[in-house]
């Protein structure tokens, strides 16, 4: 990836990652960008080789998103990393890793509390069709209502159960049980038709992972 590509990626990341998150961007072999946070600094430098055992290494190896706790024996500091491989025409060309000092606490319940009009409503996970990033808020869509949640999509992605929810686009997380149809959209991408008729894109970044998880 060239510097222009990295700069474009960082513009996206700054809008979606939780605050106080360190960010690392790599190609297939080495780090090409690193921005530490006040909370955690792994002392990575552009040009450093990707070390075996890191979250980045694991994501590049299995070619799908991972979220895992990494012991301090790997880089000298323990951390929780979420790494997403960057795919180019089906081939892994790099990786973006969000680095946090610890794994975010899981929701203690099986629902999200969303704001709708002037009230708050607990919505069970199984009733949520999809979540949409819009104007720095997260819209939570069900068959009967649309509400907002204070967390952004990346924060919610940490919390939501993997057996129900799947990130398919920088702006969307979908509940796989509400997918009605999957259509080819363009080269290596798809268009989802949800059960309420909503059309949601699957971006190229998530397309290969999407196919692997849904086994098609």
Short structural description:
The protein is an alpha+beta fold and 216 residues long. It has five helices and 15 strands. The strands form four sheets. Strands 2-1-5-4-3 form a five-stranded antiparallel sheet, sandwiched between helices. It has a five-stranded antiparallel sheet with strand order 10-9-8-12-11. A three-stranded antiparallel sheet has the order 13-14-15.
Describe the structure.
- With 216 residues, the protein is an alpha+beta fold.
- The chain folds into two domains: 3-100, Beta-Lactamase; 111-214, OB fold (Dihydrolipoamide Acetyltransferase, E2P), CATH 2.40.50.
- It is 20% helix and 42% strand.
- The protein has helices at 3-16, 55-62, 72-75, 153-159, 204-214; strands at residues 22-26, 31-35, 66-70, 79-88, 91-100, 111-116, 119-124, 128-134, 137-142, 146-149, 165-169, 172-175, 179-186, 189-194, 199-202.
- It has a five-stranded antiparallel β-sheet, with helices on both faces.
Main features:
216 residues; alpha+beta; Beta-Lactamase; five-stranded antiparallel sheet; 42% strand
Oligomer: single chain
Helical fraction: 10-25%
Q: What's the order of the H and E elements?
A: HEEHEHEEEEEEEHEEEEEH
Query: According to CATH, what is the topology of the largest domain?
Result: OB fold (Dihydrolipoamide Acetyltransferase, E2P)
CATH top level label of the largest domain: Mainly Beta
Strand-pairing-aware structural class: alpha+beta
From the N-terminal CA to the C-terminal CA, the straight-line distance is 29 Å
Using the alpha-carbon principal axes, give the shape. Answer: globular
Number of strands: 15
* Whole-number count of domains: 2
Largest sheet, strands/sense/barrel: 5 strands, antiparallel
Per CATH, the architecture of the largest domain is Beta Barrel
Distinct helical segment count: 5
Residue fraction in strands? 35-45%
């Amino acid at each position: 990836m060239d510097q222009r590509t990295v700069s474009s990626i960082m513009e996206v990341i700054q809008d979606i990652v939780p605050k106080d998150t360190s960010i690392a961007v790599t190609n297939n072999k080495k780090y090409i960008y690193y921005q530490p946070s006040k909370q955690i600094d792994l002392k990575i430098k552009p040009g450093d080789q990707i070390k075996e055992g890191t979250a980045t290494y694991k994501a590049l190896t299995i070619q799908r998103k991972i979220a895992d706790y990494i012991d301090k024996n790997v880089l000298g500091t323990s951390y929780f990393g979420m790494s997403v491989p960057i795919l180019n025409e089906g081939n892994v060309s790099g990786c973006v890793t969000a680095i946090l000092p610890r794994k975010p606490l899981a929701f203690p319940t099986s629902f999200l509390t969303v704001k709708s009009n002037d009230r708050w409503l607990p919505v069970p996970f199984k009733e949520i069709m999809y979540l949409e990033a819009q104007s720095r808020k997260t819209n939570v869509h069900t068959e009967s209502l649309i509400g907002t949640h204070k967390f952004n999509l990346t924060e919610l992605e940490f919390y939501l159960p993997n057996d129900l929810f799947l990130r398919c686009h920088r702006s969307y997380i979908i509940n796989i049980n509400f997918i009605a149809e999957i259509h080819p959209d363009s080269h290596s991408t798809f268009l989802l038709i949800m059960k309420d008729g909503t059309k949601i894109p699957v971006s190229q970044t998530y397309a290969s992972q999407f196919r692997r998880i849904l086994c098609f």
